[in-house]
Amino acid sequence: MNEDLLKAIHQELVAIRQLLADGKAAPAARSTPAPRASAPTTSAFTSSGGDAPIPQPTEIIANPGDVQVHFGKNNGVALSKLGERSLSWYAQEQAPRLDSTGNPYPARPQETTLRNAARTLWHQNRGTLGAAGETAKLPSEAFAEPAAAHPSDEEALPF
């Protein structure tokens, strides 16, 4: 039984390899995803080539292009000298570094400044800079009515 299964898997792999070598793809495997609607004010390049939102900065930096990267291959390079792809990477929220217990280290002030400067410069370049801490609203949220006030727990008690 296992031998038959292995032969079937082998035949399938040979067929796939042949299709790839011929430059053809199986119709079901080559489906194109529907294009995503993306607001131009929040798009950025990612390493996978897709679009990712660039959040508004939590603090607007006065001269964001003068802020220098403090690590990696761009150490000492001002944000204004970076390309669009690199700038968008520094503007993205990065995965936190974890300590030995699995808890994230708090962000250092220089990391927060770099991220806010990159976000400020990104949105300044596109004319989409909002107030500090402002988040972009989805079109469905733009006309939403404010949430009704909820009574406090004490007011909800029947006695």
Produce the secondary structure layout.
Blueprint: H1 2-22, H2 84-91, H3 109-126, H4 139-142, H5 153-156
Helix pairs in contact: 2-3
What does this structure look like?
The chain is mainly α and 159 residues long. It has five helices and no strands. Helix 2 packs across helix 3. It is elongated, with a radius of gyration of 25 Å. About 20% of the residues have low confidence.
The count of helical stretches stands at 5
Number of strands: 0
Note the quaternary state here.
single chain
- Low-confidence runs of at least 5 consecutive residues: 34-50, 135-149
Major sheet attributes: none
- Terminal residue distance: 70 Å
β-strand percent reads: under 5%
Radius of gyration: 25 Å
* Order of secondary-structure elements: HHHHH
Mean pLDDT: 75
- Judged by helices, strands and strand pairing, the structural class is mainly alpha
| 3D shape | elongated
What percentage of residues falls in helices of 4 or more residues? Answer: 25-40%
